[in-house]
Amino acid sequence: MMTRRELLESLKNGLSAGCVGFVILFGGRALRRRLAEPEPAPTAQHPLRPPGAIAEDAFRAKCTRCMLCGEACPVHAIRFVTRIAGAQADVQPGPLGFKREPHVQPIWAGDDTPYLLPWKTACILCMECTRVCPTGALLPIEETREAIAASVRMGVAQIDRKICLPWNRRSWCGACLTICPYREKAITVDYQSRPTVHPEHCVGCGLCVEICPIRYKAISVLPPFYPDVGDTRAE
Amino acid sequence: MSARSPKKKPRSAPSRFYRRLTRARRQRLPGRMRALQLVRRCVQASVLLALISIPVFSLYENLRNQRDDIGIEARFDTRLVDGLLRENPERRVLATKLRGSVWTLKAGDTVVSDPLAVVDFSAAARSGVDPFLLTALIPLLATLLLGRVFCGWLCPADLLFEVGSTLRRWAGIETNVTFSRWTKFCVLGLGALAGFYLGTQVFAEIYPPRVVSGELYLWITFGAGGAGAWLLLLIVSFEVFASRRFWCRYACPGGALYSLLGTFRVLRLKVRADRCTQCSKCVSACEFGLSPMSGKIGNECNNCGHCVRACGLDALTWRIGPRPKDGFDIIAAAERSAARETSAHGAKGTVEENHDTAGQ
Fold first, then answer.
1. Structure pTM?
2. What are phi and psi of B159, to 5 degrees?
3. Residues from chain A contacting residue B128 (CB–CB below 8 Å)
4. Domains plus CATH for chain B?
């Protein structure tokens, strides 16, 4: 048995170790506040995140790389940033080998965080991944049309009018309009079936990208920070 | 045609097997402790099996639904698993109720996660209060009581590294670079600091159990792995060619955390000095380069039981109890031989040795 002195000793040791650990772990927080350094604007490029993802910096801090979201995804749309600079292989194909200004992932991105490649597999908006996330990197979203429209903003679709069939009078199309879950709101077509995206209604699921019959995808989903479309991400 | 000679053969020496058997009986080997080793192997195998079967069943479930609902051709041959699971109403249980890995396991609505994941999360998210911290409660309690039990019993990478260690033994590689065992505590502290300042979880990238589970998931689901496979290859090859069990002994942040948490563990190794002949078989058997014979074990012991198994004299065994009074005793040789003499006189003297970090 432990004597009282030893008990006190061990308590003291444990407490001091805990204090040191606490200072090491969380001490910088106070320091940071003291310095009152303004947080940089979230302009860093990042891949498309699953629905319900919080702002990118917080997402990368909170995601614990458990891959539960990928296991939960019924269509396996959620992929993982696994290769160092592996984004080069995942970039949407285009005439010169890649699409104009793709969301190239930075070189440090081989960190097993989840992302989506809509031109391979689009999100079907089942919100299963938001329910399984244990850390709150993906916030749970109710599986209703209104809730998804209100809180999902994975990215914003953007049409490339140079290669879109109706915009070039090549044919009648409207595939993106047909498959869009928020058709007539997020995507509208005019009398010649020429599509237009309305960013305020687009949730960024990427079904239009997957269905687009053009090989190089006349429509693509860009993360919402993208300068052309403006940052409309919640939070 | 001569029949077999009726002449009675001279009694030959008993076969090696027979000698082994009788010796084992004579010495009353610690049968239960050997069974423990078997149990440990079974646990490790089932963890590995679970890590493989969870993604397989998940993939199967999704592709089967696709096949059944819209009749598309599945890229994974679901008929294979169909045969296994036919007429099984609990088919969905594995696929939907049990998810995750040893890093973060989700059974139903209960989430169990690694204490290191929690440390990583707290450092990167810069928050000390989060519901996610509660998920490490069960592993935390187990570690407080049993020490580095995760390392020896549940870690899938440990299995890999033990294979490496066996290869090393077979190949007869003698090169063994050693480091300070404090290196891994530095890795733990620096990793937490790096996570704090980078705002990303760094242990998740380098912690082999998570890397192994992640790689298994990726290979099964997407047919391609990531950078983690290279990391594992690097570690294993370094261990095989340069340093025995390098990662677990010197670099693993998880091992460092469990060593810290297991300071007051109750599962401890007991040396019966009356039986010990100081043959040091246990010392060479110890994967972590500890010295069970002299009690120099500290918190590093991962309860793998190799030393208990190696001891042919039943001098090593487990006990459950608090830390001994004198804390870090290393019994002197004289005392040991005295204990042996008393036992030779019929007294059943048992000397318990214990081991803590401070003595080293």
1. 0.77
2. -60, -45
3. 22, 25-26
4. 29-96 (no CATH), 101-261 (no CATH), 266-338 (3.30.70)
